[in-house]
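User: I'm curious whether this sequence folds into something compact or stays loose and floppy. Could you predict its structure so I can see for myself?
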Amino acid sequence: MADATPYPLLAGSCLLQDLGFLAFTRDHVAIIMLTKKPRGRALTRAQKAANRRIARRRVRIEHVNSRVKRCRIVHDTCRLRKAGIRDLFMDVCWALPNFRVRLTPWQPMV
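Assistant: Here's the prediction. I'll summarize afterward.
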C-alpha cells in the first residue's frame, strides 16, 4: 500500500522511517531508521547512540500526534460521507495544536 501511494518528497529530503516499512524506499531521499539488534548479538555504542538520537526526534513527533488526537474525531469513527469533509476536519485538527503553540510565547517553537 505504501509503494502505491504517491508521496511528494523532494529530492534530497530525509524520511524518518519505522522498522515496519523496511522495504519502502524513494529515489533521492535519505531514509533515517533505527538499527535493529542482530539476533544473538548486541548493538555497538555508535549504533546505540544513533538510535537514541532518532528516538528523541520520534518522541517529539509522537507528542505532536497526541495533541492532534485530543480532537476525538481523529481516532473515533467518522460517519460523515460528504466529499472533502474528513480532509477538512483533519486540517482543523492539525491546525489547532499549531495555533496553540504559536500563541504561547514561553514555549520554544519546534
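Summary: Residues 25 and 31 are 8 Å apart (CA to CA). The chain has two helices and two strands.
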